[in-house]
Amino acid sequence: MAEKRARLLIVDDESQIRDVLHDFLSQSYDCVALNSGEDALALLSTESFDVIISDITMARMSGLEMVPHILNLSPETVIIMISGRRTIEFAIDAMRAGAFDYITKPFDLSEVDAAVRRALDQGQLFRDKLTRVSGNDENSVKQLRRAVDNEEFVVYYQPQVDIESGNIVGAEALVRWKHPELGLLAPADFILLAEETGLIVPIGAWVLRMACAQARKWREAGLLGFRIAVNVSPRQLQQGNLRETIVQTLNETELEPDCLELELTETSMMQNAESEVEILTSLREMGLKIAIDDFGTGYSSLGYLKNLPIDSVKLDQSFVKSATTDPDDAALVMAIVTLAHNLRLKVIAEGIETEDQLKFLRLLRCDRGQGYLFGKPAPADPIEETRHARYLPEARYVWSYSLPPT
Ligand code: C2E
Ligand code: MG
Ligand code: MG
After folding, report:
1. Domains defined for the chain, CATH in brackets
2. How far is the CA of 328 from the centre of ligand 3 (A)?
3. pTM given for the model
């Protein structure tokens, strides 16, 4: 007997995109295509779908507005958003609200294919986790509190490479939750809840301590000029004693301040009150480095960069992803790198996955790179073991990346 085909609902008010998606996906799935969020919700009240692919901006009910209704009407449906570069923040908000994934325009059909497959493979597991963990109910808050008390977290590290020399010059610390029942959870599953409940403050302090201690170990093992990057949430910055926490942690772990880089997102930088800018300024005076994370995804003008106490910008992965395929994005990346350099800021490119992307960024004299090409985030131990390995295309962890000849 033939296997049951998955059912897909495509929602987009741009008829061309809708038709292309419908034609392409109908080769493998049973598809229905509609042109508004309202029509989609009407259909969902009587029919069920495995996956919904929806445009984020639409005239009659946006994709973002649809998410909570879909979760209500049809909790088993997995949602993928389609967003433009300018509306990427909405797509991220939709993911926070419960969407599974997003695709940015312009996309090619292989990306759509991969996203749908992922949604069908892992979407259900994701939905289970979502309802069990990030539904801001009493139980999930209790679980997260318990996790803080029991230190149910682990820090993964992702190498950062000097694009010119190919040397490993640092690593970003990325937290994971070792959930006793659900297994290893990514930040997307719990950071928002941690922010909302304020639990990000103790979690962030714990990550900082682990990361600094690890950086100290690596320096002792001979990695010189090595810097550890730690994400700082707006909540930690607002809370006031960030400076004291950092000073104490550096003392306890005996790490030099210039080996620590703090990453704050563009949006949280923009929200900053004067007192918060002062904290960052004083940390910089101590020798710490400050970077703007996910740069380019906010709506801010570039002019504000010159007024902030920062050392570098981390170019968001969405730009890196499309820079080698879309000339407009390539031009944008070029402009950002030039502007940042003129303001004496370093540029770190995130999400480098291919040699082509690396070549392009190297041509622009982008300073540092991070991405799956060099190594995925991993626990400290396996990274430690392969610290001296040379880059092989199939190697997972790379601590000495030899660049291809120019
Ligand atoms: P981020 O700081 O922008 O971190 C980069 C994210 O991109 C990581 O996701 C990393 O695994 C992923 N990434 C790196 N290279 C590639 C690549 O080549 N391709 C693709 N597709 N992805 C890549 P992760 O670990 O899931 O973290 C997600 C976000 O959670 C982080 O984004 C950061 O905003 C937040 N986060 C992680 N750890 C912490 C923490 O300790 N404190 C706070 N406040 N936030 C954290
Ligand atoms: Mg970061
Ligand atoms: Mg980032």
Report:
1. 6-126 (3.40.50), 143-400 (3.20.20.450)
2. 21
3. 0.70
